[in-house]
Amino acid sequence: MHTPEPAGPAPAARTVRVVPGGPVLIEGPVEVVLPDGTRARSDRFVVAVCTCRRSRRYPWCDTSHRRRVRRDDREV
Ligand code: FES
After folding, report:
1. How far apart are CA 23 and CA 65, in angstroms?
2. What's the confidence (pLDDT) of residue 71?
3. Metal-binding: present as a keyword of the record (predicted)?
4. Which of 33, 56, 66, 75 is 20 to 30 A removed from 40 (C-alpha atoms)?
5. d(CA 52, ligand 1 centre) in Å
6. Checking phi first, is residue 72 left (phi over 0); if not, alpha (psi -120 to 50) or beta?
7. What pLDDT was estimated at residue 74?
8. How far apart are CA 55 and CA 33, in angstroms?
């Protein structure tokens, strides 16, 4: 069986960076299709897509993935 040659040069690959414990950073613009079929679009240069599901702006990362460090500097 013959595989047809691509019509032109291969498109440039989009860079996606995985942040350990954090979001996935994708070169924008980005359109995310959610499980219910709705679409969210961001035209930012780099888009942070939430992977922890804790974001109040899901599918975008709002830094809720960061651990909250409680600092109690009061003396007892
Ligand atoms: S990855 Fe940042 S809020 Fe989910």
Report:
1. 8
2. 72
3. yes
4. 66
5. 5
6. beta
7. 57
8. 16
- 26 contact partners, CB below 8 Å, separation of at least 6: 14, 15, 16, 17, 46, 47, 49
Residues with CB under 6 A from ligand 1: 22-23, 50-52, 54-55, 61-65
pLDDT digits (tens, 9 = 90+) for 11-68: 889 999 999 999 999 999 999 999 999 999 999 999 999 999 999 999 999 999 997 7
Say if CB 24 and CB 47 are below 8 A apart. no
Question: Which of 63, 67, 68 has most ligand 1 atoms within 8 Å of CB, for mutation?
Answer: 63
24 CA distance to ligand 1 centroid (A)? Answer: 9
